[in-house]
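Please go through this chain and its backbone structure tokens and walk me through the local backbone shapes. Keep your notes short.
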Amino acid sequence: MGDAKAFKSGREFAAWLGLVPRQTGTGGKVQLLGISRRGDTYVRTLLIHGARSVLSHAKHAGAWAEQCRNDDR
């Protein structure tokens, strides 16, 4: 990753990882681009496995997590 100050925001860092769509635009009109596969696949994999682990070990994950869990089945 290098220096974290190279990113303007957390969203820009997430786009660099390939987790959220890149965005571009001028004059206040924002255009969302696709999620790329150019990011670091190893870091994405670690984040996914970490989230699965937290959800499987949590006593009560919350309504949002339960909804996501039910959508996957």
Summary: Residues 41-57 form the longest helix (17 residues).
